């Protein structure tokens, strides 16, 4: 079963983000370094106001698809985790929020 990590970046007044760096450097770095642990693909979404015009709680986020939860656990225990996490200040002054979960199969 596919396992996902969703990463969200808070929409706070003092937040500073370099989304271009995130998309062009950080996400490819994750795929390159952690492919051996089962990273399959990733996407990034910019969040806009809701239907009522309210500002979103998060500015943008990403989803990383993995082959398995065990692969995620191995990746986060690997030596590569230091390089990946130390890259965060290059695109964000806020700590991201991580959500880990199994993808629900919706086929009948």
TrEMBL record:
Molecular-function GO terms, alphabetical: oxidoreductase activity
InterPro entries found in the cross-reference section: Dimeric_a/b-barrel, EthD_dom
Gene3D superfamilies, A to Z: 3.30.70.100
NCBIfam families in the record: EthD family reductase
Recorded family membership: Belongs to the tpcK family.
Protein name listed in UniProt: Dimeric alpha-beta barrel
Higher taxonomy: Eukaryota, Fungi, Dikarya, Ascomycota, Pezizomycotina
């Amino acid at each position: 079963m596919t396992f996902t990590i969703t990463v969200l970046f808070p929409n706070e007044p003092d937040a500073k983000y370099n989304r271009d760096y995130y998309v062009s450097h950080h996400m490819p770095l994750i795929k390159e370094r952690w492919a051996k642990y089962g990273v399959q693909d990733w996407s990034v979404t910019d969040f806009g106001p809701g239907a009522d015009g309210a500002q979103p709680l998060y500015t943008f986020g990403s989803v990383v698809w993995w082959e398995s939860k065990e692969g995620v656990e191995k990746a986060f225990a690997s030596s590569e985790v230091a390089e990946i996490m130390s890259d965060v200040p290059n695109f964000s002054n806020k700590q991201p929020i991580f959500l880990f979960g199994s993808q629900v199969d919706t086929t009948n």
